[in-house]
Amino acid sequence: MSRSEEEIVRFDNVGLRYGTDKEVLSNIAFSLYPGRFYFLTGASGAGKTSLLRLLYLAQRPSRGAIRMFGRDVITQPREKLPSFRRRLGVVFQDFRLVEHLSAFDNIALPLRVSGVREADVQKPVADMLDWVGLGNRANARPATLSGGEQQRVAIARAVIARPDLLVADEPTGNVDPEMALKLIRLFEALNRLGTTVVVATHDVHLLRKVPDSLIMRLDKGQLSDPTGALRYPPRNPMPASPPNAPRDGRR
Amino acid sequence: MSKPPVMARAVERGLAPLIGRRASHLLPRARLGGPMPWVIAIMVALTVLAAGGALALTNLVDRARADLAGGVTVQIVEADPVLRAAQADRAMATLRDHPGVADMRRVPQAELEALIEPWLGGGVRSEVVPLPALIDVRLDGEVSQASLDNLRSALAEVAPDARIDAQSDWLGPVFSAIAALRWLAIGLIALLAFTSAAAVWLAARNALNANRSTIEVVHLLGGTDGQIARIFQRSVLIDAALGGVVGLVLGAIALTILGAQFAALDAGLVQGGGLGGFDWLLMAVVPFAAVAIALLTARMTVMASLRKML
Questions:
Q1: pTM higher than 0.90, yes or no?
Q2: What is the ipTM of this complex?
Q3: Angle at A219 between CA A216 and CA A223, to 5 degrees
């Protein structure tokens, strides 16, 4: 199997503009490989959120091609896109928890949307709540949770359905350094199970916390790849197996 | 951080649709707190009233037509009471042997005077105001131009001052007016259906705007347009059903009261305008139609709005 066949996301010459303004993203070209941990860095306004919106299929690019899980998502009919989105987990910068739902129901949402039987929802969600340390807050509404707790609910919701690709937009932006580290460890744990992780952050200290991570840097809408591993085709030969290759034989 | 739980490998996707209680609590609701059920209740009540009116008018026309179908009035318009009585007697004798005449009666003088009393007052003497002699004739079948011509030629010699008219002709303008009223009621029903759809459209748009963030989240988590539309449809279904039942009850009560008041008039023509069992059955369909319109409108509105998202 060639490297290009393994990639789960590939951007080719992607540009994005809002209305008639100049492009906020220009000539974006990269590939994401399964089981890897990526940081997307850049100053505020560099276009990180715009790039993530393209990744989690909230936005169509103005130009270029995007392939995801081996399919061209730009030309896919709308009704096919939910099946792609169900393979993604997204941690939004503003969490986007459903205010009138409990922590439990917020986390259960992706499973219910995906059509998991109600009997099969209860235990995974309860386990997930315990995992993120909110086992005793299952019935709490988001408004009654602290910022860090909301963050953890948002993360639990993003990972509950075992996504193939997890996209997190500034997931540590609203929490103290200790909680930030905990969250990154949580992402690493998920990554070890085989999920590809993309974390957007402007916190350069965070990058050092995950030594095997790959870095994409955005500057004024242009992407650079300081690790040398992201460009398609890769600038340097890829390692025989990804550093965070899954260990449970899932892939 | 401990190892993540082995979660739904679990995600055998698409096994259970997002319906029922699973979907219902995605949208916050205050049942009967919003205007939707009450708007639909009012629309259904008005539609039931309009439909009841149209059906009652239809019954009235049908019964009046049936009553008058074979009716012919023979008037002997002669000022001289002796000649008038003689012509009336001869006409009665001729009609008695005329083929096609099922029944007849001469309208008594007292009844004639009672007929004109509302206009001329009581105690009018026939020698002062000559009244025509009236013969009420029933034919075997419906009155046609041919049967009228037959009667005219039969009476031409024995009662030269006889005027022969089909009774249904006299009520022709009334029937036309009632037909116009019936069309008005049908138009009103169509207008109410359109207004109901518009109300649901507005309510669905408001609900969409109020719940936009929830919808976007469900959409980005992989919810399909159909799933999201069904969440709204379920909400609209409950509102419309509640409103429909309330509206039907209100409309039925109003119709019953109106019917009782018209019945108390004891006026011949109005007596024919009651509602039968089948009519009530038809009106019971109105809430179902309202629910169907509401569901269809909600679905179209939500789907059109969702199509604007990627």
A1: no
A2: 0.84
A3: 40
